[in-house]
Structure formats: C-alpha cells, structure tokens
Design goal:
five-stranded parallel β-sheet, FAD/NAD(P)-binding domain, 20 helices, Fumarate Reductase Iron-sulfur Protein, Chain B, domain 2, 484 residues, alpha/beta, globular
C-alpha cells in the first residue's frame, strides 16, 4: 500500500504536512514606524525553497484561477523548491509584467493565497506573494531582467495616455512585439499610483524606478509633464499613432459634504500621499514644508476603510503624528481594505474607531470632527449589513489634520480633452469592451481603473496585457488584408 510518507520522501513538494507556514521576518513596529522602508525582510534561498515546497501541486489550482493574471503559480513554486530560480522567474514573468510589484502589494489574502487548497484543509496557505517577490528580486540582482529586445521592428505606432500599471503593462507587450510605443503622462515621473500613491513601506520607489528604466532602455518613449488637453490635444495624439490606449486611472477624490467641510486642515488622501512620496524622492514640496500636508505633531483623523485609508494612517504615524485615528462606518469584519494592512496599522499605533461616521467639522483651521455613532442593521443589496445612525450618540473627535480617504472617481475626460465621441458610462468611466479595451472611437482603447472604476493594480496589469494582445491582433489582421 502506497503511504503518504513515501510519496513525500520522493517528492520535493507536498511538505505542508510537516512544514508550517512562514512569512519573511517583519520588522518590529517600534522600529518600522519611524521610516518608510518596506516592513518585510527578504526570504533566504533556503526559506524560499522550503516555503515553496509546501505547495500541494493540486489538480485544480485555485490560486491560479483566482489570480487576475492567471499566473502559473504551482509551476514556479515547484521550480523554486527545486532551486531552479531562473526557470521560475521565466515562468513568473511570462504572465505578469511586474511580478516584483505584485509580490509586494497584491492582496494575496483575498486572491491567490486566500483560495489555496491547503488553506481550505487547515494547513495554512503557501506564502505565494513572498516567494514571488523573492524570485523577481533575485532576477534583478542576478541580471536576468534585461531591456526589451524585439525580434523584429514593426511600423505600427501606439500612443498610451497614462504611465501607471495598466499603461506600462500594455507598453511592455507592444514593444516586445516590435511596435513603436510612446507613453504620455501628466506627472514628472512614470509609474502612476505606484510612484505617487502607494507609500514606500509597501513599495519602495527604487523598485518602481528600476522597472521604468528597463522599459525605457527597451525603446519605450515616456513623455512626462505632458497634460493631455493642455500640452497636447487628444486629437493630436490620435493623429500621431495607429492606435491610442487611455490608461489614466481615476484620480478625482470623492468628497464629503457637511458643515465646515471646506476648512483648512481637511485634505484629500491623494494630495497627502503624493506630497509624502515626493518628499521621499527629495523633491521640494511647499505644502509638506509648511505643514499643510504633513502630519508631524498633529492629531490626525482619517475617514475611510479601504487600502488608501490604511496608507494614510500608516504614513501619518511615520511622519510623527501625536495621534492617528481612523473612522469607519462599519465594523472590522466589513472593512473593504486588507486585513493584513489593518493589523500592521494597529501594531504601529493607529486607533480604529469602528461604527462611526463624520457629520461635519469644527473650526477653521479644523479642530475637530463631528462624529455620529452607528450600528449595523439589515443587509443591503450587496449582502453587507447597512450602517444605521444611533440617535443622541454624537460627539466631537479632536483633530488638527483630517484626511478624506473615501475612494476615487473618474475625471470627465471627454470634456477635459474635447474628445467628441468618447463615450462614458453613468459612473463616468470610459465605455469600452472589457476583454479588448476597444471603445467606439476607431483605434481608441481604454484599460484599467478608467474602465473598471477604482480597482487593484493586478487588474490594471491584466487589462493592459489583454488590450495589447487585441491591438496586435488588429494590426496583424490589417496586414493580412493589405497583403491580399
């Protein structure tokens, strides 16, 4: 009779029964709360192989199914366990343009790791994200990541508006096929929210910049400080290229009404995070220097419960805030943000005030937030319990800086760009085919958050890659017709 022990002795995998789950060592909260360095250490080669060997190599890999990019996770876990890291990297980057970024910031607990088969059996998930990060960081260190070198050059040209993850993922695939690619971005550095939205303790900026450099060295032209509709028109971009991809993301902050909402000291999350990241680059940031977008020595209140709110509270801690509180209208179990990030924030000294919602602000400059206490009632259309007000339970939460992290909406691009015929949905997102990104304007495509609404980086990468494949198919079809 075949025993499981015999199978495991011959197999480099299936070690989940004997080897417990292990994450890379996390820096102590008292240490990491004073700087913007990443909080997790790197796996050693032995530990990466050991943790990868816990994979059960199941017949139906739910980790792969639930990854938006459908990464070949079991394959590169096995290769890592066998010490074949170069092959593991080749498999990893075949489906993911930025594995070193996804390994750091993807919410693995909700995607691949959250659907791991051994997790369902009570043995705890494989640490997929940390192994992915280790593989790609090793690839960079060993020089395996090289500039793009197309096998042949094509005559077609594509213009991409937006140098965030969706736009850069599309640029990478198109350039690998030999297409001429120009990326236009309003900011002075490429990367979008990877550069200016996500704090360094989750994604150190040299990780992003090295990837941008690799794309540029491969022949992708990135035009920064270029505001479409001001510095160049949308029609001019269309006239320069055979196809155009809109990958602007969504940057218009949702606002919060109520008495006193226009007071000084009440700021938008994107402005606050951008100022912090610019300061980290060594830029001169007047709003940071004068204290407008700096939490140092202030009582900070962040309103919201998503990942952006977590970025804000943890940034405020590192800037030396006197106190940091996060108001959220539901409870911890119903937060939209990552539970891992919430735990990290709590360890670092953030206080979460559950079941609370703002109802106005006191003072100008702001000195407090009028807070209403809530309770959870019946489920709404999404199945989540709806928050209900508790009469007579209002109070004032003292604050010197209030950060609104309520999510993002799309800008009115047709109006801003004078783009007649560019259709939008009732939510203001660009109307485009979800598989190809094709809009109803000939040769114009759209990808990422500007189509989906605010979503995950990994979905933007998926959209960019799918759109690039669709454009290449259109180019090939046009060539075939021309040749007949």
């Amino acid at each position: 009779m075949l025993r499981i022990e015999d199978v495991m002795a011959e197999n480099p995998m299936l070690k989940f029964v004997k080897i417990p789950r292990l994450m890379p060592q996390k820096r102590e909260a008292s240490d990491r709360a004073h700087d913007f360095g990443e909080i997790y250490a790197e796996f050693s080669e032995d530990k990466a192989a050991e943790q990868a060997s816990r994979c059960s190599q199941c017949g139906v890999p739910y980790c792969q199914t639930h990854c938006p990019l459908h990464n070949n996770i079991p394959d590169w876990l096995r290769l890592t366990a066998e010490g074949r890291l170069r092959e593991a990297y080749d498999i990893s980057q075949a489906t993911n343009t930025f594995p070193e970024i996804c390994g750091r910031i993807c919410p693995q607990d909700r995607l691949c790791e959250g659907n791991c088969v051994i997790e369902q059996s009570g043995h705890e998930t494989v640490t997929i994200g940390s192994v992915e990060k280790y593989i790609t960081d090793t690839a960079w260190a060993e020089g395996w990541v090289q500039p793009i070198k197309p096998a042949a050059t094509r005559g077609e040209s594509v213009g991409i508006i937006g140098a965030g993850p969706g736009g850069l993922a599309a640029a990478d695939m198109l350039r690998r096929a030999g297409v001429q690619v120009t990326v236009y971005d309003r900011y002075d550095r490429a990367g979008g929210l990877l550069t200016y939205g996500i704090p360094g303790f989750k994604l150190e900026k040299d990780v992003v910049m090295q990837r941008v450099t690799q794309l540029e060295e491969g022949g992708i032209e990135i035009v920064t400080n270029c505001n479409v509709g001001v510095d160049i028109s949308f029609d001019e971009i269309r006239s320069k290229h055979d196809a155009v991809i809109i990958a602007t993301g969504v940057y218009k902050s949702r606002d919060l009404a109520g008495p006193g909402s226009g007071a000084d000291g009440i700021v938008k999350a994107i402005d606050y995070l951008t100022a912090s990241n610019r300061h980290g680059f060594g830029d001169t940031v007047p709003e940071f220097e004068d204290g407008s977008l700096n939490a140092a020595s202030k009582r900070v209140v962040v309103i919201g419960g998503g990942d952006t709110a977590m970025d804000c509270v943890r940034t405020a801690i590192r800037q030396g805030a006197t106190s940091v509180k996060c108001l959220y209208r539901r409870d911890k179990a119903n937060m939209p943000g990552s539970l891992r990030e919430t735990q990290n924030a709590e360890e670092e000294g953030v206080e979460f005030v559950w079941l609370t919602a703002p109802n106005g602000f006191v003072g100008n400059p702001v000195t407090g937030v009028n807070v209403q206490k809530m309770r959870l009632g019946l489920p709404d259309a999404t199945g989540r319990q709806s928050p209900e007000l508790i009469d007579g339970a209002d109070y004032v939460e003292p604050a010197d800086l209030v950060i609104k992290a309520l999510g993002f909406e799309p800008e009115d691009l047709p109006q801003l760009w004078g783009a007649e015929g560019l259709e939008v949905t009732r939510w203001g997102t660009i109307r485009a085919d979800f598989e190809t990104g094709q809009t109803r304007l000939p040769g114009v495509y759209a990808v990422g958050d500007i189509v989906r609404g605010a979503s995950l980086v990994v979905w933007a990468i998926r959209d960019g890659r799918d759109c690039a494949a669709a454009i290449l198919a259109q180019f090939d079809e046009a060539r075939s017709i021309a040749a007949e």
